[in-house]
Every structure is written in structure tokens, then in C-alpha cells.
Design brief:
Blueprint: E1 4-9, H1 13-23, E2 29-35, H2 38-44, E3 53-57, H3 66-75, E4 79-84, H4 89-98, E5 103-105, H5 110-121, H6 129-136, H7 148-158, H8 163-170, H9 174-190, H10 198-207
Parallel strand pairs: 1-2, 1-3, 3-4, 4-5
Helix pairs in contact: 3-4, 4-6, 7-8, 7-9, 7-10, 8-9
InterPro entries: CheY-like_superfamily, NreC/VraR/RcsB-like_REC, Sig_transdc_resp-reg_C-effctor, Sig_transdc_resp-reg_receiver, Tscrpt_reg_LuxR_C, WalR-like, WH-like_DNA-bd_sf
Organism: Leifsonia kafniensis
Pfam family, one: Response_reg
């Protein structure tokens, strides 16, 4: 692995400079752009350019919306990590519902920020107490109505177990595990909370308290 390519979208010049300086000496992370808007980032990418992660300030001054920004980035195959002052739970809810990999506060320590960016650049969800609190207070987070058995299978599968191991631990056939996962995805889809990937399933499990928030 030659390294992850990341970009920061933040319209505060001091924040952008500090971020770039912080990561300039970190092996495996290349900050390829620090820009003030999503449109500026996308316009700067040449055809075929690959970007692993965009670290997105949730409060930009260009009139863009969180959902619109996240959608634009994900449509280009770019994962998103929300970067916020943490003073607006509604913005964090918008971000979580839009499909970001996690939320990290600007006030976090250097170690926490480095860990979050490194994990998100690798496509891993970054759970945090802020993300959990925002989702916990979200009145629009629809209940998927999973059965106890579906919740059990989801808890094992979303935590990283492959279907054969889930089958062994749950005492059911592997084909039944696959059927349960298909039903779980369908139920989440019906309530407007898509879970098309294993990362999505992990996030849904965190949101619904089926898996614990790491570190809590």
C-alpha cells in the first residue's frame, strides 16, 4: 500500500494550514488538497484521480448543505469524515444520515485526529461519543423493526464475523445467515436507512444500540 490520499474541505485558512502541517510528516497519509468547498475539490480532480477520503467541515460559508456535500463526494467514490466544532447536533445528525464514516471534533487531541483520519481513509467507520449522542437524539431515525434473531445475526455479522462463523455461533445454517442479512438490509431500506455494504450494516447496528460504541 503506497499510502492514502486525503483532502481537507474547510474554509478557515488557519485550520487548513494546521491540518496540512500535522499530516505532512505522517507516513501513509498524503494530503493532496486543502480547499474551501466541495465544488473546489471536485473541480481540482483530474479524470482518473483517486481520493480515499475527504475530511469535511460541516459548517461551510458557501451556502452548501451537509447532505448535498456528502452526496456529491460519495457519488465520486470518496468516503467522508465529518470535521466539526461539535456545537450543532443537528448538523452531526445530517452528516450521519448522509453516510459519513464518522464525526471527529476539531478540538480533539492530535492522537485522536490522526487515528480517526487513518481509519477512515482505510474505509473503516469511526465511532465516537459525539456521533452516538447525535444519533441517539435523532427523532427521525426510523425503527427498522428487526426481530431478536435478526438483531443477533446483525450484531455478529456487523462486528466482523463472516457468515460461517455467525452460523456457528448462532446455531443456524449458513444459508439462513445469508437470508437473515438479506432481510435486515431490506428492512433498513424500507425505513429509508440503506445498508448496502457491511460498513453500512455496522453503522446501522451502532445507531440502534445493537453494537456498543467503541470506548464506551
Amino acid at each position: 500500500m503506497s499510502g492514502y490520499r486525503v483532502a481537507l474541505i474547510d474554509d478557515h485558512e488557519i485550520v487548513a494550514r494546521g491540518f496540512a502541517d500535522l499530516f505532512s510528516t505522517i507516513p501513509g497519509i498524503e494530503v493532496v488538497a486543502t480547499v474551501g468547498s466541495v465544488s473546489a475539490l471536485l473541480d481540482s480532480l483530474a479524470p482518473g484521480d483517486h481520493l480515499d477520503l475527504a475530511i469535511l467541515d460541516l459548517r461551510l460559508a458557501d451556502g452548501s448543505t451537509v447532505a448535498g456535500n456528502v452526496d456529491s463526494l460519495r457519488e465520486r467514490g470518496i468516503d467522508v469524515l465529518a470535521f466539526t466544532g461539535g456545537d450543532d447536533a443537528q448538523l452531526m445528525r445530517f452528516a450521519a444520515r448522509s453516510g459519513v464514516l464518522g464525526v471527529v471534533r476539531k478540538s480533539e487531541s492530535t492522537a485522536v485526529l490522526l487515528d480517526a483520519v487513518t481509519r477512515a481513509a482505510a474505509g473503516e467507520p469511526v465511532a465516537s461519543t459525539e456521533w452516538a449522542a447525535a444519533l441517539d437524539g435523532d427523532p427521525d431515525l426510523a425503527d427498522a423493526g428487526l426481530s431478536p434473531r435478526e438483531r443477533q445475526v446483525l450484531s455478529l455479522y456487523a462486528a466482523g464475523a463472516k457468515a460461517p462463523l455467525v452460523a456457528s455461533r448462532a446455531g443456524i445454517a449458513e444459508s439462513t445467515v445469508i437470508d437473515y442479512i438479506r432481510r435486515v438490509r431490506s428492512k433498513y431500506e424500507r425505513v429509508g436507512r440503506p445498508a448496502n455494504t457491511k460498513v453500512d450494516l455496522y453503522k446501522r447496528a451502532l445507531e440502534d444500540g445493537i453494537l456498543p460504541i467503541p470506548g464506551l
